[in-house]
């Protein structure tokens, strides 16, 4: 149950950190007190950047570093845009001595004063990832050493460079970087500390934070009195301070506020322009004494302008059409890739996996599914018809695409145009395809006992005739098993006969000099119930989606994961008195006071109308609730008397997990007295489809 308070401490603190960055760049107390100004800008404000680094590290590790590529890509994009945004100012100020200088700054110091953060976090993240491979202790130790080197070039510079070799070393460093506060010396430690995500209880964290902040203030004022600081971004006590602060925030972080994240990023990027705008307009209007000389007013003007401008930009951003507005399918691509791996491992080495993605990949979305599998190194796909094959090619799917069903001969030019391989369903089909005079690739279907498609295995003459036809390039021969899911003796016997007929025919073909090419006969149940077959392909459909067709057992179960979840929302909740009825035909009658939730999914989305009468349930707040009444076209009714906290907008799970409860597709199919294949392939196309990929440990 999600009754937690809506606290997004990490994201909320981003805004505070943002204000600190602006403080750092505007010195609000400068016209009042140099000491307090030093404390505010050179001490307190120094926690902002380490905080951003720690949150990045924290989330990167939460994803097992899998999102590092995506993270870096996004940063590069933001960095590029920011560099462009400040290019006019840099050009106006003749900031670059030439293209080499520009490139050098781009890679090290960020081209504009606040932009140093981007190259630093990019380099830091790559470095931290590499360090983290060495184990938690060694990586932290090395990061601490790098930080110490950075410290020597920052606030301890005057002390450290009393030694000549060190002075030379820092001289070398400063030829490359302007400061040691960068991706090499500063960023790795804070990224890794964030990654550790250590938290103590609230009291210890708050106490530790106060003490370490005091210590950092003492350290900074001491260094200031010695006059040894070259720069003042790094202190010995800063990491300690950050660990307590982060621990405090982690203790109260329960949810996310992506809007705040975007806002703070925009404020970060835009505020230097706002400083210039405030100063420019103050001069223009003759208000220098207000908005330039008064540092506090200056700061507030910059802050408000930055926030206002960022809000405006966010508001102008086109709203993404949220894919989860009413009822939707969620497709877990990581589970799909996992299943493909498991299935391949179950096949003998010479057998490859052919992914059956017909009927919109059994309702999972043929294009995202095929793209994901292509990335996972699968290069053979099967579809039911021409349009499905063309759709895959248009989406950039390469390799073999086999059309398992009938294609009218008139469409032969399209087969050739899209390099699709056609199944030959009988002798007449073969002749008609050949007669088009267009060279196409085909696989011969053999009928070994299903009596659906294919040339009968007994008809050797027909097989020879097909081989003699012009224009058909026969790349393969296959058959389909119709009893492989039946583990009873008669089923196994029938399957064995089909296999024998298939292999005998293949042997005969080879002896008479007809090359069968790639051979294949197993579908999912052939993989689960038969010993490994020495074929070129196994055509997996339902197994790829991580479910069985029904609840019967198989000989060789594999560790597959369901790929699809089906969800909808609570539209409204209402109370019925005992005796009142609800829904079409008043099919539901409340025998006690009952709370009814109306869920936004119906038979137009693929659920059978009498599912409630067959025991259908949905998950709400992690609990099973019974469907009642008759399913409507766009809605269904659920008895939620047990869930007093249910609210409109809450998510209902029809297939999938919610908390520790799960409704599997097999269960739903059993209620409907059908197989999951039918249920899923019939899901309505009004359901939006959202794919996601949560990396997990294998
Ligand atoms: C649909 C189909 C498959 C895939 O079947 P699953 O049981 O879903 O694995 C394989 N071969 C042919 C000929 C099919 O029609």
Strand content: 5-15%
Small-molecule components bound: pyridoxal-5'-phosphate
Largest sheet, in brief, is: 9 strands, parallel
User: What is the count of β-strands?
Assistant: 20
Return the structural class.
alpha/beta
State the shape: elongated
Chain oligomer state:
single chain
Overall residue-averaged pLDDT value? 93
Provide the low-confidence segments as ranges.
1-6
* Rg over alpha carbons: 33 Å
Cα distance spanning the termini = 28 Å
> Approximately how much helix is present in the residues?
40-55%
Number of helices: 26
Report on this model:
- This protein is an alpha/beta fold and 698 residues long.
- The chain contains 26 helices and 20 strands.
- Strands 2, 3, 4, 5, 6, 7, 8, 9 and 10 form a nine-stranded parallel beta sheet that branches. A six-stranded antiparallel barrel has the order 11-14-17-16-15-18.
- The site of pyridoxal-5'-phosphate has 13 residues, from helix 24 and strand 10.
Key terms:
six-stranded antiparallel barrel, binds pyridoxal-5'-phosphate, 14% strand, disordered N terminus, elongated, 20 strands, 698 residues
Topology:
Elements: H1 9-26, H2 34-43, H3 48-62, H4 68-92, H5 99-107, H6 117-132, H7 136-152, H8 157-160, H9 164-176, H10 187-196, H11 202-226, H12 238-251, H13 258-285, H14 288-291, H15 295-316, E1 327-332, H16 333-346, E2 352-356, H17 358-363, H18 366-375, E3 380-383, H19 386-394, E4 400-403, H20 412-417, E5 421-424, H21 427-435, E6 440-447, E7 455-456, H22 460-468, E8 472-479, H23 489-511, E9 518-520, H24 524-529, E10 537-540, E11 564-576, E12 581-582, E13 588-589, E14 594-599, E15 617-620, E16 623-628, E17 636-639, E18 651-658, E19 661-663, H25 665-671, H26 676-681, E20 688-692
Parallel strand pairs: 1-20, 2-3, 2-10, 3-4, 4-5, 5-6, 6-7, 6-8, 8-9
Antiparallel strand pairs: 1-11, 11-14, 11-18, 12-13, 14-17, 15-16, 15-18, 16-17, 18-19
Bound molecules: pyridoxal-5'-phosphate.
Pyridoxal-5'-phosphate binds near residues 404 and 524.
